[in-house]
Amino acid sequence: MLSELYIKNLAIIEEASIPFSDNFNVFTGETGAGKSILINGINAVLGQRITKDIVRAGCDKAVISALFTELSENVCKKLDELGISHEDGQLMLTREISSDGGSIARVNSRTSTVSVLREIGECLVNIHGQHDNQILMDPEKHLSILDSYGGLEKQTEEYHESFKQLQEVSRRLKKLTLERKEKTEREEMLREKIEEIGSLSIEENEDEALEAEYKIAQNSEDICAALNEAHSFLNGVDDSEIPGAVELVSNACGDISAFSEALPSLKTLSDRLENVRVELEDIVSEISSELDKIDIDAERYAFLTDRLNELNRIKKKYGPELSDVLECYNNAAEELDEFESSSDEIEQTAAQREKLLADVSEKAKCLSAARAEAAERFSAQVEEELKFLDMPNVKICAAMEKGKLTAAGMDTVEFMISTNVGEGMKPMSKIASGGELSRIMLALKNVIAEKDNIHTLIFDEIDTGVSGRAAQKIGIKLRQVSKHQQVLCVTHLSQMAVMADNHLLIEKKTRDGRTYTSVHRLDFEERKREIARIMVGENITDTALKNAEELLLSSKDI
Predict the structure, then answer these.
(1) Which of 50, 252, 266, 415 is paired with 118 by a 20 to 30 Å CA distance?
(2) Average pLDDT of the segment spanning 376-384
(3) Beta strand spans in 312-381 (E)
(4) pTM of the entire structure?
(5) Per-residue pLDDT tens for 43-96?
(6) In degrees rounded to 5, what are phi and psi of residue 274?
(7) Distance from C-alpha of 221 to C-alpha of 301, rounded to nearest angstrom
(8) Calpha distance 507→520 (Å, rounded)
(9) Are 244 and 232 in contact (CB under 8 A)?
(10) Between the CA of residue 546 and those of 314, 340, 526, what are the distances in Å?
(11) Cα 445 from Cα 196, distance rounded (Å)
């Protein structure tokens, strides 16, 4: 509940401390006295956007403080979320607005932010003006209104918990399915790699051996020609009169050795030539052996070419070295062996999701049925309230449509209205006027007053466009609402003002060339005079005062 509002240097209000009762509070005063300034001040301390022009001329800053007591469970929960102490059951919100446009927010005297004020304010106060009926104009809020009216909070909470579980299991199933897809793709890639490398039956250092053989094969004709020629030079050519080097050396050796006894020094030369002959014969033999080795046919050459191309391709893909290719093969084989299928977990999770889906669907159907039943009662009760408020021809219904499962159930709800006999139902936002919306809001608030989580309601000129009996009935309804929620109301009508438990007068005066607005609580005699002023204007007569007194006294019995 809003217990007290303190204002300093706000527009034409120099300083005011305004006490409130827990029930029905009204503000009255002449046009331009500053009633809208009070609403702006409350908006400011609740974290709403304001301008620096709100600061009183010639002052450095404006200060607005609001003291709240008897905090609701909803407010305490929000304060706990924000880490704000409330052990004494009180809450002080303060906002300072500088003339240069700056702003400072405080919660329980501790510096905070305007956004925190706004978060808390949304749990503390609802302000409803002639053009501020968003709750009725916004279909997204209609479902929560209906659930609140039907007392379906526990049922909706149970559904929401089940829906959250369904979402979590669905996300896990999606993740597992994606992981299995990725694993399957990985397994397929590994199998392809193993098949591709394994099919080549690669041996360690095979490429080096084949490269050497390939080089020989590639130059085999030239090598053979060179070796044959060398062989001819050393061993001679068959059917040729030209001797080879071996024969020539052998002849030279024979010639010298024939005179070695006559000239002993020739013995050494003879031995040396014999050694050369033996070495040349050995070289001839090795040349013949090399010629036999490089006797490579075309088929072998083609094999070497193809095989080396395959090895070079696989090295380019998985290398760069052949040892890297073999390592890649071994790693892939090991990884494939370690893979375990996740099919069992996926099947279990899918079964769990199906079970949860069935449970959530059943709860959604039960919730939808409960909402349909509550919608009928809600429409009938609101229509009864509207009849009392002189709107007997208005028909209202909560149109429900079923769709896919969401966090709120399977229903969408929109309040539909018909304001005249014979007219079809249309969305409230497209048919109701400002005055009609104010009374519909009042009827709705009276219907759900006991279950509304916000304990302070402010109605700014809810009497616009009404008078006489309709105004009296609005006053009666506001009093009824105030039995469950604190009500603050700005009014121009005596029929409403007399219903209040706490009457506050907003009065504007001029002093020393400046305008000042004061706010003070009226006692019974002061209320008589203010009610009389509202009825007849500034020229208050005894008859007007008597009528005002009768209205005040009779209002206690209504």
Answers:
(1) 415
(2) 91
(3) none
(4) 0.60
(5) 899 998 887 788 888 889 999 999 999 888 888 888 989 988 887 889 999 999
(6) -65, -40
(7) 12
(8) 9
(9) yes
(10) 111, 94, 13
(11) 76
